[in-house]
Amino acid sequence: MAPSPSMDSKSWDVISFAVDKGHGVKGLADLGLETLPKQYVQPPEEQITNSTVVTDDSIPVIDLSNWTDPKVAEQICHAAEKWGFFQIVNHGIPIEVLEDVKEATRRFFDLPAEQKNKHSKDNSPTNNVRYGTSFTPKAEKALEWKDFLSLFYASDDEAAAQWPSACRNEALDFMKKSEFAIRRLMEALMKGLNVKEIDGTKESLLMGSKRINLNYYPKCPEPELTVGVGRHSDVSTLTILLQDDIGGLYVKKLDSDSWVHVPPINGAIVINVGDALQILSNGRYKSIEHRVIANGIKNRISVPIFVNPRPSDAIGPLPEVLEGGEKPIYKKVLYSDYVKHFFRKAHDGKETVDFAKI
Ligand code: OGA
Ligand code: NI
């Protein structure tokens, strides 16, 4: 039976409609539901309330126009140590590239469910392309109000053959045009760890593979009862995130229980340290918990690029970091095992990194 807005969520199978048939939360939003289906109601401790949000503090905004200036490198390292999150402006990625990938994201999610669902876990002919909703519906007690398309970059030819045509070129272009800024950021961060140059081994560990996600957070009934994305840290070395002008991303302040909002800045890119870089730096750079609120008025999109080690790399504290006698707090783990561990469970804050703790 086709659901109608007048039916409550008990009388039809929300999971089958949103998850299995691929309508996603966008499909639910398009029905014009007035109440949130119970499957999306998060426990009270995960709901985002004003009492945990601080308004008098914000993550650094770093101007990259003089990227050869040692002061800029210092700002980058300082932000990675104290916040794990910052925004960059004058990063060299043309504004049209950013606008185009946002437009392409809307185009993809506006496709009929049957077309998007060709790329679901069950239907996609390749593991490198994955359309889905929430995070790991099978492992979650409560679902998250988000749909996504996740694209692992293997090669241009593979992307041309497998990535959905609605967004392929724009996603590839954003990846390519961000390479310069990513390299400059990595060079600065490595300098701060006493690593003199990024040789082939380091190149693989720091940026050997990439994944781009297109995230869609449709307007949500009763948004205060759920989340767009629950508390988590990323498993990347660095994440490069483009967000639209809606807002809703919150970042945990280091060593506190308060959260700060990441305000949308036109043309800026949000950068955050992921678990892999926290491990490589032996805890110097911080992979910080973050989450996204659901919005009751507007649809929101974001486009993160996850810069990762290669799946076959072993990650552990870099020798340069331990040179002066610092004790390692992480052991070496295979990156593909680390990522598997992350995707086996629901979002659970910072717990993934325990997998690599000594
Ligand atoms: C993520 C994430 C934040 C956002 O995809 O890992 O944290 O603003 N996204 O969408
Ligand atoms: Ni994230």
Automatic annotation (TrEMBL):
The keyword Heme does not apply. SUPFAM superfamilies: Clavaminate synthase-like. Residues 123-132 have a biased composition (Polar residues). Residues 201-309 form the Fe2OG dioxygenase domain. Keywords: Dioxygenase, Iron, Metal-binding, Oxidoreductase. The keyword Transmembrane does not apply. It comes from the Eukaryota. Residues 113-122 have a biased composition (Basic and acidic residues). It catalyses: (E)-feruloyl-CoA + 2-oxoglutarate + O2 = (E)-6-hydroxyferuloyl-CoA + succinate + CO2. Residues 113-132 are annotated as: Disordered. PROSITE patterns: FE2OG_OXY (PS51471). This is feruloyl-CoA 6-hydroxylase. It holds the Pfam family 2OG-FeII_Oxy. One of its GO terms (biological process) is response to molecule of fungal origin. Pathway: Phenylpropanoid metabolism. Its cofactor is L-ascorbate. Belongs to the iron/ascorbate-dependent oxidoreductase family. InterPro entries: DIOX_N (IPR026992), IPNS-like_FE2OG_OXY (IPR044861), IPNS-like_sf (IPR027443), Oxoglu/Fe-dep_dioxygenase_dom (IPR005123), Plant_2OG-oxidoreductases (IPR050295). One of its GO terms (molecular function) is 2-oxoglutarate-dependent dioxygenase activity. Gene3D superfamilies: B-lactam Antibiotic, Isopenicillin N Synthase, Chain. Its EC number is 1.14.11.61.
